[in-house]
Amino acid sequence: MTVLNLRLLGLGVLKFCLAVISISDLVRGAQNCEDPNPAPESIGFDTLPYNFTLAAANASLANAADLTGAPLVLGAGGATGGVMIYVTSTYSSFPYNQYPTLGLVNRALRAFDDWGNWCVNATTIRSGERLVWSRSVMYPNPEDNSRVYSVIQTPSNPYPVLAAHNVSTLWSLCPFPGPRAQTQLVFNVSAVRHPPDSDYLPFDPDLCYHVMLHIIPAGFSS
Hints:
The protein has one domain (43-217). The protein has one helix and 14 strands, in the order αββββββββββββββ. The chain has one helix at 3-32, and strands spanning 43-45, 52-58, 70-80, 83-90, 101-105, 108-112, 118-122, 129-130, 132-135, 149-153, 161-164, 171-176, 182-187, 209-217. A hairpin with a 2-residue loop joins β3 (70-80) and β4 (83-90). The radius of gyration is 28 Å and the shape is globular.
């Protein structure tokens, strides 16, 4: 084989090797490439470093995520055995606010009075039940059995939202009839028997509407 042929053969082998290297680099580059538009991810919090209030935004509205929502307060729920009971109601249906700020600590919800005293705790909530709070000095460690709450932040919502059992999409506001009727917060209203046959939940599920519970830092005004 002539020297010229050897040179041509060597040049061909070199071009082939360079082509293989280029293809390998492209494959590695494709494997290491990050999606410039990754799917939105939710971030959960078991504790918040600030106090807040709750506001319910009607989830059936197209711009619900951008609305602050109707303010919620601790409404009158009665008393039994030395324990004061509160329900979570709209301010428009119960225009008083004895406990103006809330807190989340280790998945437990707390309520504070005007002087910042912590004296009320949310109870454990289950499907078909209201978000109920209790106040008592008779029972120690009231939070131990109520650590089911968290806060979730998603890129699509400017406000963090409250979750129970790690679910933030099952809250509803339901009108409760009576002489002092209140519109109250219920979790997973679809679990309520229809028509309701319990005096504990005397409301019509058909009158409820789905809401998102926005976390509004205390002192914030929209």
